[in-house]
Amino acid sequence: MSRVSSSGDPRAPSRPNDGTGESSVRVDADETTVGHRPDRWLGWALVALALGVATNSLLGPLVTGAIAYPFPETLVNQTVGLEAVSLAVVAPWSLVAAWFVLRDHRAGPVLALPPAAYTAYMFVQYVVGPEYLTYSWVVAFHLGLFVLSGAVLVRAWSSVRSASLPTPSETRRRRASVGLVLLTAFVGLQYLPAAGGVLTGGPVSDEVAAAPTMYWSIALLDLGVVVPVTVATAIGLLRGASWAERALYGVAGWYLLVPVSVAAMGLTMLANGDPNASVGQVVVLSVAALLFTAFAAWVYRPLFARARDRQGTTERTTG
């Protein structure tokens, strides 16, 4: 028997309610797709990504020091904090995403987006930041992880079945869009000193001068990729674009992982007595990381609302 969507057209794809009690379309008996085969390639690629990220952290200055980066003291401390988050958060997240993918849970592909985007973002910096003057197996290893993360990102994006995702209400779309604008503003504020320098043509700070390639690679990624993608997603949500609903999960997850890693960098600098450490900056970044985590949890929550919970919410709203 065909299900009739809210538009009355039995051919139109039906989608579950977002758990807010608004715009109820269909209540699934389960979050898995009957008759749909799990994407085993994506699942095992996520396992490989988790192992690669964990291995890199274990080989770096965090644990064994087998990989020695030609960095100044500040960047070494930041790398330690980054690799701690990669090992404790990103690698396990990838494994959890793999588990959901192999179970063919609707959350699997969207959970795969943040760790893949995080790894691609970070390993651009791992490849170009050290400014290697000799050929090294480390570059090949990092390049391989970058390629793998890109492949996982593309595969995860194409594997998201929009019809299985919760349908956000107009209110939820607007709130998510506002949240994304605030995230964009936070990133932009980090570059206010640089904007002033562009206007005056002044010199970069001593910290930037010690590793200019690393700084400019991060600026390129933040201002050339992250900010435009976040703004586009915010606009897409307001216009009701289905692609923006998918992108929201990846963007929100990325903003969880990266600020947490940056806060960990600052904490490591403080713990090691780094001359460039700032208590105020660590406090700001830590608070931001907590807020971004709360936003991501809000975004992801409807994915895990059970069918009976969605049904009950709808009945309370319509009754």
TrEMBL record:
Highest taxon of the lineage: Archaea
Keyword RNA-binding belongs to the record: no
Protein name listed in UniProt: Uncharacterized protein
Region (Disordered): 1-32
Entry keyword set: Membrane, Transmembrane, Transmembrane helix
TM regions (residue ranges): 41-64, 84-102, 109-128, 134-154, 175-194, 214-235, 247-267, 279-300
Coiled-coil residue spans: none
